[in-house]
Write a structure and sequence with these properties.
Elements: H1 20-29, H2 33-45, H3 48-58, E1 66-70, H4 77-90, E2 95-101, H5 114-117, E3 127-133, H6 145-154, E4 160-163, H7 173-177, E5 180-185, H8 192-203, E6 206-209, H9 217-230, E7 250-253, H10 262-279, H11 281-307, H12 313-323, H13 329-342, H14 346-360
Parallel strand pairs: 1-4, 1-5, 2-3, 2-4, 5-6, 6-7
Helix pairs in contact: 1-2, 1-3, 2-3, 2-6, 4-10, 12-13, 13-14
Length: about 350
């Protein structure tokens, strides 16, 4: 470090001081876990520092295998993730986890209980568990999930595991954000068939029978295997590259309590990763992830623009008219589009004109 107080002449060999953002990112890349935690907080808060940090970190990612863990509430997803962490640590691998908890619709807060269930790893600097609130975002994940995964990836964690909220059959967004998706089912809940009907067979690369030491686990495993024999062998969501075989969905029974099936599950995840690389399907999944990320950002931008119109009198009048049933929602939408267009959203003006023309033809 140069002593800038020495001498009377101008100092020319001292670089400008690093901004806090640059300092944090550099420390993160050097392995500083405190800096990683602070960067993740800024990213999750959606402020400018977080956005700038994400931009810098993006080029350092792309190496981690991202594993999604989804399933109904009470399926033991957090316990399963903890068991997988143990299997990976035995292999000498560092593991990052993003655990999404549901937010309260009243306060917006979350219990972040996943960190409690994975507390055994808090003292291991090769394991980083980050809980985050869904903040009302649907699909089982939060709006900033992808950015947090990318930051953990850049920090050198591999694999990175994403655990979803556990809200039921709608948790399929995680499949678009990850490379391998685990769909967890447990005996005695009656949710297995419904989940698979709702698209589970198309998003789950590995079907996991959790709490495999409980009565009924073997029967559930048999049911899932039976359903796979009746399913479309090559659904569009997992269509292989021409000339390559599709991935055969596996069913694995796991007990985190007895460790039965945990090593087999970790091996199956590695086998799926190898399949993606060998078949070339990883390219398709990366493009799907990029598309999902861009669309999510577009939706967030549009939601923010629309939310900013609520204080406008014309929008308030439109809301009141819809509530009184003197205007239909489609008719009232024109007021919102007009306000958006006046605030610098040219697409809104075009949409308003198109809707006016459409209603004029009725």
């Amino acid at each position: 470090m140069t002593d800038v107080s020495a001498g009377d002449g101008p100092v020319t060999d001292v670089p400008p001081p690093a901004t806090p953002r640059q300092d944090l990112v550099d420390r993160l890349l050097a392995g500083d876990r405190r800096a990683l935690a602070r960067v993740l907080t800024r990213i999750e808060n959606g402020d400018r520092v977080g956005a700038a940090a994400s931009a810098r970190l993006y080029a350092h990612g792309g190496r981690a295998h991202v594993v999604g863990v989804t399933g109904p509430p009470g399926a033991g997803k957090s316990t399963l993730v903890g068991a997988l962490i143990g299997a990976y640590r035995e292999q000498g691998r560092s593991v990052g986890v993003v655990a999404v908890d549901p937010s309260s619709p009243m306060s917006g807060g979350a219990t972040l209980g996943d960190r409690i269930r994975m507390g055994a790893w808090h003292g291991d600097d090769q394991v980083f568990v980050r809980s985050m609130a869904s903040r009302g975002h649907g699909g089982g994940v939060a709006r900033a999930t992808t950015d947090l995964v990318d930051a953990l990836d850049a920090a050198g964690f591999n694999p990175v595991i994403v655990e979803t909220v556990g809200a039921g059959q709608g948790e399929i967004d995680v499949a678009a954000l990850t490379h391998t998706t685990l769909l967890v089912q447990v005996p005695g809940t009656g949710d297995a068939v419904q989940t698979l009907k709702a698209g589970g067979l198309e998003v789950g690369d590995i079907l996991v029978v959790g709490k495999g030491d409980l009565p009924g686990a073997a029967g559930l495993e048999a049911d899932l295997r039976g359903m796979l024999t009746l399913a479309e062998p090559d659904p569009p969501s997992r269509r292989a590259v021409p000339g390559q075989d599709a991935w055969p969905v596996r069913v694995i029974r796991v007990s985190a309590q007895t460790q039965e099936g945990v090593a087999e599950l970790a091996d199956a995840i590695d086998a799926h990763r190898a399949h993606l690389a060998r078949s070339g399907e990883i390219v398709t999944r990366l493009r799907a992830r990029a598309e999902a990320t861009l669309l999510a950002r577009l939706r967030a931008l549009l939601e923010a623009q629309v939310a900013g119109t609520t204080a406008d009198r014309r929008v308030a009048d439109a809301v009141a008219a819809v509530a009184a049933r003197t205007r239909t929602p489609d008719e009232a939408l024109a007021s919102v589009l007009t306000v958006l267009a006046e605030r610098g959203a040219p697409w809104a003006g075009a949409a308003a004109n198109n809707r006016s023309a459409s209603f004029g033809r009725r």
